[in-house]
Each structure stands twice: as C-alpha cells, then as structure tokens.
Amino acid sequence: MQPFIFTDSTADIPSIRQYDDFAVLQLSYSLDDDQYDNITKSLTPKEFYDRMRQGAKSATSMVNQVHAAEKIEEVLRQGRDVIYLAFSSALSGTYNVGCQVAKELQAKYPNCKIAVVDTLNASLGEGLYVDYVVNKRDQGASFEEVVEYAKSITDHVCSYFTVDDLKHLARMGRVSKTAAFIGELIQIKPVMYVNKLGELVPIAKVKSRKKVLKALVDKMEEKMLPTDEQKVIYIGHGDCYDDAKYVADLITERFGITNIVIDYIGPVIASHTNAGVIALFFLGKDKIEEKDARVSS
Description:
Blueprint: E1 4-8, E2 22-25, E3 27-31, E4 34-36, H1 45-53, E5 58-63, H2 65-76, E6 82-86, H3 94-108, E7 114-118, H4 123-138, H5 143-152, E8 157-162, H6 166-171, H7 177-185, E9 188-194, E10 200-207, H8 209-223, E11 233-237, H9 241-255, E12 260-264, H10 267-273, E13 278-283, H11 293-296
Parallel strand pairs: 1-2, 1-6, 6-7, 11-12
Antiparallel strand pairs: 3-4, 3-5, 8-9, 8-13, 9-10, 11-13
Helix pairs in contact: 2-3, 4-5, 8-9
C-alpha cells in the first residue's frame, strides 16, 4: 500500500489539484481580534485580502500539535505509512512540531513508518514540491524511495517573488523600517527568494512594478533546468491576477512553456507578504545566489 502524504496549509495547494491518499494540516492566523483556525472558521483568499487592504493586522501560528497528531494517527490506525512534507524550518516551528508528533506516534505504532521532511520552502513553492513528490509516489515508488526523492529535490524547487508593500515587510521584520520608507518613496520593488536554508532573502532592487515582474522571469531563465524537465510552473499572487497573468505570458513567450498554474497565495503566507505579492516557482539548478552571503560562500 502506498504511503499517505501530509503537508500543511502553507503549501497553498492550487485549487485544481486533487490528490488521493493526501491531506493538509492547518495552520491558524488572525486578523485584528478575529481568529481563524482553518478548521472551524476560515476566510476565502479574496475575503482575506480585502481585510488586509482595509488595514487589518495579521499574525500566524504554527500547526496545531493536537490536530496534527489526531489526523496522522487516523492514518496510522489503518496500518498505513506516513510522510509529512513540512513548511520550511527556517520560517516556522511547524517542522519541529511534526517531528515531535512523529516521535510520539512512532512509539505507539512501531510497525508503521513515519517520516517528516523539511521542504525548505513555502507557499506554492512548497505546493510545487508536494506535486512532484506525490507524483513520484503515484508512479509506484516505495516509502523509502519517496522520502529519498523528496530530500533530493529540496535544493531544486526554486521560489522567487516580489511584494508591493515594503512597509508590511518591515512590520513583519523582513526589511528595516528605514529601507522600507526609502523604498516606498522612490518606488523600489524587491526581488526575493527562498534560499537552500529555507530562508526568505532579498537579492535585488528594481524600480517599477513591470520591471520587477520581468526580473522574476529573468531569474527563472538564469536558474531553470531545461524546459522538458519542467512538469509545471506555479505562479502565486496576492489578489493581483493580472500581474500573475503578465508573468505567465512572459514565460510562454520566452520559453514556450504553457503548462502554468496561477492561484492565490493563501492567508497564512500572505499574512507576511500582504496583497500585491507575486511569486514564481519552478525546477532549478540550485537555490544559491551570489548576493546571499549565507549560502554563496
């Protein structure tokens, strides 16, 4: 029997994706005084972004340990093996929660196999990672083969993005308040990426929205594996579909790639990026940038 695969809601699995033997563990978030656990209470992405544009303050929490344990144990009771593809450990304690749950449940179900894999990614980058791993499993790979494959692609699922609101990044501690203030004054737009450590890192500054969207595609051209190895390209957006479509059209025009999925970046990730974020996800040679001192040396 094939292993059951879990991920978490930070993966922003596209709405068109439906997988068998698969489930999503939920992270919670808040807007002002309203709490959303994504289990009993949630917002649609559109509702969330409308609230953000109205000035609501957001915050997020790790995956709920009790909820995660309950959902995973339901599968283990059936004698199934479990693989949990977790949100980047550099961005959240969710991976560590998953490891703790796995340790406790492994003792209780010694005849089942449990693996927690750090995707070192987020949002639809994590979602693209999940897509590749689920497809590997569905091709008949064993538990061990799926885990090995998952670990092998952590350095190859590339994520590049830009935001339209530097002030929000400053509030979330991603850039300094001074840099955000100056950037807003002169309309600077950052290019950021998720490095091989799973961290969000700014690597370039571009003046104007159109130029920064083109810069994302330039990065794809620089980093991507050959087009025949790109099963699908994901583009995430923060309630700015037209900008996402512009990026998709550039990709098709430049590389001839048409298998492109555009979808919302969900509330948990968008709590840190705000409306206007655009993110591009693809299979690349590596996740190293010269301007990122943490990984380039």
